[in-house]
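## retry 2 of 3
previous attempt timed out at serialization; input unchanged, resubmitting
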Amino acid sequence: MSTIISILVKYNQLLLSQINQLLIFIAKNIPLSKPKYDITSPKYNKHAVDKVPIIKIFKRLDYKQLLTETFICPFCRHVLSKKKDRKNFYIHKCINKI
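## retry succeeded, writing output
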């Protein structure tokens, strides 16, 4: 029984070496065809993966300190004036007349 197994193992190794030699022959002598589809085409961009986003870590701000500071218009950099009162907050408007 052990002789049959050893003979089959040897035969299996012989077949594996022949498969390996055939693969090497195919890789060297048969040129690979170009891909059917151009991956760089805009048609296939929906399958591309985006770059990893940059995550910025902002420093923590104290809201009480921010409320006490002067409000400045983000567009013209003039001081905002308090125009309306609401229940829990104030509405500020820019009074710049340029």
